[in-house]
Predict the 3D structure of the following.
Amino acid sequence: MPVSIVLDLMEAAPVLVFVSTLVAIVPLALLLSKATEDLSARTNPTVGSLFNATTGNIIEIFIAVFAIRAGLLQVVKASITGSILVNVLFLIGLSVFIGGFKYKEQEFNRKAVGIASSMLLVAIIGLAIPTVFGLTSHQPAESMSLAISTSLGVIYVLSLVFTLFTHKGAFVVDRIPENEASPWSTRKAFVVLIVGTLGAALLSEILVGAIEPVAQSLGISEAFIGLVLIAIATNIAEKIAAVTYALKNKIDLSLNIGLNSATQITLFAVPILVLISFQLGQPLSLVFSVYDLVAMVVSVIILNHICADGDCNWLEGAQLLTVYLLLISAFYFIQ
């Protein structure tokens, strides 16, 4: 963090500022994840899950808010698409692939995964409606986006009631791995969470300020930066946790992390960002490109197909990773 801040103040080369800030976000995300997990462990599973849901995507939300303020709405949309692809294809694919070499077959709760993937499908449908409207009618879809995001927020709240209260027995909510190092004290975890959140806000502002010049100097689109680089860096904590669980033959938890993170982005973060965008005078329309929409739909379809039988192996993980590489390769040339 100090390096990226100093480079920004010295007005160093935008690429250098961007890379140093992106690198600084990785350990910061890990620290925030550790603080969140330790504080959640001191509460009951219901409160802990709600706390995780609220703070789990804090860095992504900060980056998106600063991007909205800067008028980089395409970067925000690309980061939303990127988060879905990273969690559904890359995170789950990597977990299944690596875990599959240690365990020939890994079984999971098909009902719980099916409900989670159905929620993600509902979210994708919500994003598809304003997209189809905007692409076919060529009319502004800001008001429709606001209405859709409100509906997505409502179904997210209902899904929390379902998983945490009425049917909590069918879901795994403890995300603390076995034999983990001693947790931090409540005071230390709280201080790290507060300071880390402030640091995330500062780094997010620096990162967003470097996106445009970096895109121009590297000859890539701003949307591709949001789709791939920012999406991967901000989800690093979830990736490490998911792979760790897969190596412990707890693929249920790996799948839950990927699906829940993608669902939280679409049903929790998106409504918040749309509301904030109206307050900032930069209305965020949920009209994505055709390629964004196809990528999100394809991701959910292949995941549902692979998870239909209740077990997985390394080849299925490789298939998910291959689809991710195919999609981002296409986006490199399309965007």
Notes: Residues 173-179 have pLDDT under 50 and may be disordered. The first helix runs from residue 2 to 9.
